[in-house]
Amino acid sequence: xxxxxxxxxxAIALGAMRAGVSVVTGYPGTPSTEILETVAKHxxxxxYVEWSVNEKxxxxxxxxxxxxxxxxxxxxxxVGLNVASDPLMxxxxxGIKGGMVIVVADDPGPISSQTEQDTRHFGKYAKxxxxxxxxxxxxxTMVADAFxxxxxxxxxxxxxxxxxxxHSCASVEILENIPKKVPEGFEKNSRWVIFPKLSYENxxxxxxxxxxxxxxxxxxxRNFITGNGRKGIATGGVSYSYVSEAxxxxxxxxxxxxxxxxxxxxxxxxxxxxxxxxPFPQKLALEFLQGLDxxxxxxxxxxxxxxxxxxxxxxxNLKVKIYxxxxxxxxxxxxxxxxxxxxxxxxxxxxxxxxxxENQANLITKAxxxxxxxxxxxxxxxxxTEPPELPIRPPVLCAGCPHRASFFAVKEATKGxxxxxxxxxxxxxxxxxxxxxxxxxxxxxxxGITVAQGLHRVEQNRINFAFIGxxxxxxxxxxxxxxxxxxxxxxxxxxxxxxxxxxxxxxxHPGLGKTMMGNISDVISIYDVVSSLKVTKIVRANPxxxxxxxxxxxxxxxxxxxxxxxxEAPCIFVTKSKEPYVVDTEKCTGxxxxxxxxxxxxxxxxxxxxxxxxxxxxxxxxxxDVCKFGAIGGKRND
Length: 638
What we know:
Layout: E1 3-7, H1 8-18, E2 23-26, H2 34-41, E3 48-51, H3 55-67, E4 72-77, H4 78-94, E5 100-105, H5 119-126, E6 130-131, H6 136-153, E7 157-159, H7 163-167, E8 169-173, H8 196-218, E9 224-228, E10 231-236, H9 238-247, E11 270-275, E12 277-278, H10 282-289, E13 294-298, H11 304-315, E14 321-323, H12 338-349, H13 363-381, H14 402-413, E15 419-422, H15 447-458, E16 463-469, H16 470-486, E17 491-497, H17 526-532, E18 537-541, H18 546-556, E19 562-568, E20 582-583, H19 593-598, E21 603-606, E22 609-612, H20 622-626, E23 632-633
Parallel strand pairs: 2-3, 2-4, 4-5, 5-7, 6-7, 10-11, 10-13, 13-14, 15-16, 16-17, 17-19, 18-19
Antiparallel strand pairs: 1-8, 6-12, 9-11, 20-23, 21-22
Helix pairs in contact: 1-2, 1-6, 3-4, 8-10, 9-12, 10-11, 12-13, 14-18, 15-16
């Protein structure tokens, strides 16, 4: 079979296609986005694929397909699972016919999320099986295993890749497609209606299934034990890859193995267990614990494997010491790294660490410092110089971004007013940065509108603005506006329509009239939707027309009820840039007002004069409106 260099997300997508998936739904969210996009890219008409309005709807569409016997897949990130949790909990009670895989990409760090969440907890809470791939190659084949498991038990399953599995690349062997099953179709019967009696009966089945799954997973080929000794390491997911590298690292104390050898050859002094699934494979774990004195558990994000081992030791009266996150020997937040795992494994297995490992709560920090010192020593010995530290580059709104113009207009129009600005998830979250400083709250998608309502109930003398983007408006913004209208709340909702889902890579949404199937559909007008919700007043403006944008604020500021400002201007990545603006150095006084008010990355100082970087400027023209001396000119990008 041919091999292909694939990103982990691409591997998951191709693995699902190989496994005979028919329907793929999702909502974009890093680190999961490329999965659905890869399916769409390779779609020859045999699949149905869509970006749904939100994760809840995506899951429900996929469930309907699974009711009819088709294999379906849903993609989202870990916080998206929170949105989809309501239908998912009930779906496990009802069950499905066709295999259904819910890909939930966890984001240790977090790198691009509000929270660190470990989806293995959710799987246990919802009593749903979880598959935890450690590499892109494993993810490719594990998708088919997940579909098979789902159909065997008639329940949805979760595939839980983490960021480094999603976004790392590997050479993956492309296997032959599994013969695709023809969906049997939807059969009408009472099993699809979740009445209390049915829930009670199915809960008994679910609990029985969990015991059977645990036994199944004890024999699953991707859960295994290797090596021997009095010490053991238990790991899973991407952390298994790091442990493997650690055990192949000469600094740990073992001889380096050749490229053709596996970790199983490293049997001297260390027993290794890899866990790739949940429910926890107890029989396999008990086999692992036999003959061990102590175990180091390396996992992301939470001590899930660690707690299971502690439980088994207590249940079976095994005198095995378990180290990990709960004891402070593995850090309890953020990603594991190759360096941090090497340091922990070296300290755990090293001869000099036996006496004090148990009490060394800050071991990993000290070990990392030792590793760093060792690296510096080696570098000096080899006459290598340390690379300079990378400069700190905080995220900023792009040059020419319409959101900057929108924030600037609202800020100028509300000077001196007692106002609060609630933000949301998207590019416009960056409006919190100086000099704009226009995002006072940010919780999760759609929450800007609802947080503003709660703030108003406590402080009714303040003006509450809520900013939300066009894609997020369709995601969870509409219910928030409905709630505000129904409960007669005084807020101003500012909808920033830049004609795309910009933050995650410019995916289409219902306001654009384009689907992932390549079809053209009716455009769902944000203006018409909001108008139908009986808001007090709605005003439209182009944020690049500074005066019109400020007048839009003035038009609603003294009204009562739910008022809406709709700022409409496309993202710079979906429209053509105009000629860059230039600074007339004769007129420029070097006052820096253009920089201090806008914070546009295209404007910089060249000595005592302002300068516009022509490679960054898109010709939006807001800086020309800000300059009091007429020193900036060009052709406006309206």
